[in-house]
Specification:
- This protein is α/β, with parallel strands linked by helices and 489 residues long.
- The chain has one domain: Thiolase/Chalcone synthase (Peroxisomal Thiolase, Chain A, domain 1).
- The chain is 36% helix and 18% strand.
- It has helices spanning 22-29, 33-39, 53-68, 92-105, 126-139, 228-250, 254-260, 273-288, 295-302, 307-314, 335-344, 348-355, 362-365, 375-389, 421-425, 430-433, 442-450; strands at residues 6-14, 18-21, 43-46, 75-81, 119-120, 146-155, 168-178, 183-185, 191-194, 263-266, 398-405, 409-417, 438-439, 464-469, 483-487.
- The strands form three sheets. Strands 1, 4, 5, 6, 7, 8, 9, 10, 11 and 12 form a ten-stranded mixed beta sheet that branches. It has a three-stranded mixed beta sheet with strand order 3-2-13.
- The radius of gyration is 22 Å and the shape is globular.
Length: 489
Amino acid sequence: MSNTPYGISGQSLYLPQFEVSLEQWCQWTQTPWDKIRKVVGSSFRVPGPHQDAYTMAANAVLRLITQYDIPSGQIGYLALGTESSTDNAVGAVIVKGLVDQGLKAQGRAPLPRQCEVPEIKQACLGGVYALKAALRYLAFDGQGKQAIVVSSDIAAYQLGSTGEQTQGAGAVAQWVTPNPTLLEVHLPATGSSSHYRGLDFRKPVKRYLTKQYKPGNERFHDFPVFNGPFSTNCFVDETYQALRSMAEKLGVDLMDYLGSTAAIFAHRPYQRMPETALGIACLLHMAHEPSRHPRLKELASVANVSFSDVLQEAKQTQPLSCFSDSQDVHKTPYANLMKVLRAFRDTSEHQRLVTGKTKLGSDCIRHFGNLYSAALPAWLGAGLEDAWRNNLDLAGAPICMLGYGSGDAAEAIPMRVAKGWREAASNLGFEEALQNPVVLSQEQYTQLHEGLPTTLPGPQKGEFAIHHVGKGEDSSVEDAGIDFYQFIS
């Protein structure tokens, strides 16, 4: 392995044009807007009937190549991270084929025939694993080449479910190169953690055998099976383990490291979740080293919680899981720490280590919704663009990227902002990607969500779309259920 630094030299964002205002959604559903605004965000996007994870991914990749004028012949690796793929045999090669159509329409050379095309799945962590795989490719057998990683997902929940307000759709493409111009990734110090949870957020294929997943229309509904509070506990537990693993590899105190970073970007299923996870991570770290962090005892007192109970709760060794007993989803492993967290939120230390570190890009991402595998890279790009627009001096600054995928697994990746990052950041185009949405009425939203006929605008010029779906009517050609795509020129 060479000593050449590897990382990200550019990013692009693609969002469907159809937007749901959460303030309006609150009026439709009689939900308190103030709570949704603070905890979830401002809006989310919904894909059109002509879109899927592959078209969004291809739109993001083509936009990336165009925005950064990437020499397509240098790309030896195109990886797709998604949990919304609609073909159980192929994936990223579909994206490659679509991008080649778009490049040809622009008069550009296609991606090389000698290009690897893996699709990687681990819930919302697929894009992070794809990024790590691309970095390893460049460091070993892909030397002299470049890579593109695209994360693309559709977060859809049933109407009336507790997850409905956390929907979203979109894709983020990343240009991965040696000697990166945006972010250097310190891959050897990445912290990893994984544990099978059983009944966390899942998408079992057999759910389609049940009545609630047999809607009376042709739209594919990829609604998850999930247990909200249990999933939150899993997120908190796994991300802490990954952060702890990273700190051990770096040989630093976790809170010292968090304090030294210029920013922290995490997977974001909704606005409040990353703050909760980082806050609990700080408290757990204090509990594991109480002699170095006596502040925890004061916080427990303010929260009117027994300090010894907090220490015992933090040091429990039984992993959070409902592998053998489904009733374990009702357990509350951090009841005392959650109370202490409320007191911690009112301190300057929380501002310094949590809210202050997660501020960059936070206004922009309130409009994204949950993008599953694309949520983390979307926040990363939004944050760097925010820093560029506000003329912040980030050159050489450390940042942390914290990924999570339900089921579950987590990755904590230390990065450093490249010296010449501002030029690359000027081409991100994230705010532009948010412009001119088609804000849906309640009727239009319901029609799109349920796959009913709609009079909304069709595919936009310069984008990819599903042209038609094979019906298997010609006995001489097997095409049942296969999507046929086109580039709208």
